[in-house]
Amino acid sequence: MSAYVVEQNFIAAIVRTAQEGPADVPVWPGEWTEPYIWRGMSADTVGKLLFLENIKSVQARYGEDTDMVPSGSGLKYQPGRVRRLNVAECLGALDCYEYQACEHEAWPDTEAHTFVDQLRHSLIAHVTGYEWCPRNLTALA
What we know:
Elements: H1 8-20, H2 43-62, H3 87-101, H4 111-124
Helix pairs in contact: 1-2, 1-3, 2-3, 3-4
């Protein structure tokens, strides 16, 4: 498996979508954001958390001195202006981010992993045709 540090605006787009909801969902049920995602954390703090977790992953994969990790001011999370992603884009972005951030053994126990998991579950509910525990599956056999 390989890993790289994703662009800061990539993370910022995920965080903005988590905060404001996907661009293609007219009314975003914001209840889920309060209990976990924002537990007293600002969007900037969540972005920093995701960015640093990605760096840890790359360092675990390639060593502490890898040139694949930004140095100097590049180590500071500095997102630009980004658009909100739609549901499908954000699910793809989460899959990509997780692939880049999961290279160290502690990944399953991190705040970043929990954030990704919670956001993914919230987004899945907005996939066209998705129904939790559909009742008519046995009738299809």
